[in-house]
Amino acid sequence: MQESLEVPIEAVTLAPGVALAQNWFALRALDDASLAIGEPAYHQCNWSYLLSDCEESLLWDTGSGRRSIAPVVARYGQPRVTAFPSHMHFDHLGGIGDFETVMLADLPILRALEADGVVSPPERMFLGAYEGLTAPRFSVTRWIGPGETLEVGARRFSIVHTPGHSPDSVSLWEAERGRLYAADLLYCGELYAQTPGASLQAYAATLRDLLAWLPKDVEILGAHGQQGPDGHDAPRLSYGDAQDALSVIEAIIAAGPHDGERRINSRMTVSYAAPSFSG
């Protein structure tokens, strides 16, 4: 284990109302059926979401895998649990092996990974080598395409293809609660548009599309967060944050290919590289 990837949990400050579980996970109840599950002692400060109704739960992203998220899901979720990773990067697939029922976005780039009923992303999509990780192998129980509706009990989620950070990224839109579960498209901290497969043009196009139909009072929940003035908490962003991100990304594109990092606002920066200007 690379020590620099974790800090002692005793050094972590949690915001009021955020509870500690398994001496690793931070829990924030968004409502009585929605639980944000963070990993504040891990350097990427992952956040996954357990979304439940009736006898069913959806686990949106499966954590970093530094610790198993399964005991938390078993305690707070419903008997029937489906895991749904937002994309194939290692920090979203870490706990995938602990779940029998797995859903995946029905995109050509992901369908191409399936062989003999098993999916295993290549390193260019997994990106786990620098943390000494190898890609998991898992079976997909259900494929669901962009525009389709995912039912979790009586809850309804629309699958939205949101490329930019990666070509296989998807988000969930829950109209009833006015929430966009945005995964790595938007979150508090450093947005990555410099990794393999990232595209600034796709990032901008995705944000333009979202801003055209999302309500102005949307709550955007990201997949990473940094410690705020009150401690670690679920990363919540707004319509205005999406506008800020689009404005800065468009300015970066207009400047032409180069490597760099730009501040978006007080809660976000974006890192980018010359290759991400194409595509």
UniProtKB/TrEMBL annotation:
The keyword Coiled coil does not apply. Signal peptide: none annotated. It holds the Pfam family Lactamase_B. Gene3D superfamilies: Ribonuclease Z/Hydroxyacylglutathione hydrolase-like. Transmembrane segments: none annotated. Keywords: Hydrolase. Residues 45-224 form the Metallo-beta-lactamase domain. It comes from the Bacteria. InterPro entries: Metallo-B-lactamas (IPR001279), NDM-1-like (IPR050855), RibonucZ/Hydroxyglut_hydro (IPR036866). GO terms for molecular function: hydrolase activity. GO terms for biological process: antibiotic catabolic process. Belongs to the metallo-beta-lactamase superfamily. Class-B beta-lactamase family. This is MBL fold metallo-hydrolase. It comes from Roseovarius faecimaris.
